[in-house]
Design brief:
This protein is α/β, with parallel strands linked by helices and about 140 residues long. Helix content is about 35%, strand content about 20%. The structure holds 1,3,4-trihydroxy-5-OXO-cyclohexanecarboxylic acid (DQA). Belongs to the type-II 3-dehydroquinase family.
Length: about 140
């Protein structure tokens, strides 16, 4: 089984991107920690980071058979309506993650168009948020 780890625009340069806001962990660090978290269940992680919305949508459509997803949409949280529609058709539970506490920041980050569809939302916990999301998916998919 695979878990889909989906990261939107500007998240490939994690660690070198405004580290005072987003922390020092790289995307590779995040991928490792999520993989570590879910290996007890025998899940593999498929990690996709893209700068464009269309490619993220393809990744969702290509992974309907995954067990669940962790999604950091980046700034697509603000107006990513096509991403939202793609996630509406994703058949498994998924968790939205934001490294920073978006509510402590600019007004335009205070609403996410994908959040109403998410199984849960984790914000402001830095890279740990991805691990917590992985744990949440382990619980949500327990029969
Ligand atoms: C982010 C928050 C977004 O507002 C921002 O556009 C990002 C990163 C976060 O992880 O904190 O790209 O999703």
């Amino acid at each position: 089984s695979t878990l889909l780890l989906l990261n939107g625009p500007n998240l490939g340069i994690l660690g070198r991107r405004e580290p005072e806001v987003y922390g020092k962990a790289t995307l590779a660090d995040v991928e490792r920690s999520v993989a570590q978290e879910v290996k007890e269940r025998g899940w593999d992680v498929v990690s996709v980071q893209r700068e464009s919305e269309g490619e993220l949508i393809h990744a969702i459509q290509d992974n309907y058979d995954s067990v669940g997803a962790i999604v950091n949409p980046g700034a697509l949280m603000i107006a990513g309506w096509s991403l939202r529609d793609a996630l509406a058709n994703y058949p498994r539970p998924w968790i939205e993650v934001h490294l920073s506490n978006v509510w402590a920041r600019e007004q335009f980050r205070h609403e996410s168009v994908i959040a109403p569809l998410a199984g849960g939302v984790i914000v402001g916990m830095g890279a740990l948020g991805y691990q917590l999301a992985a744990r949440a998916l382990l619980s949500l998919t327990q029969e």
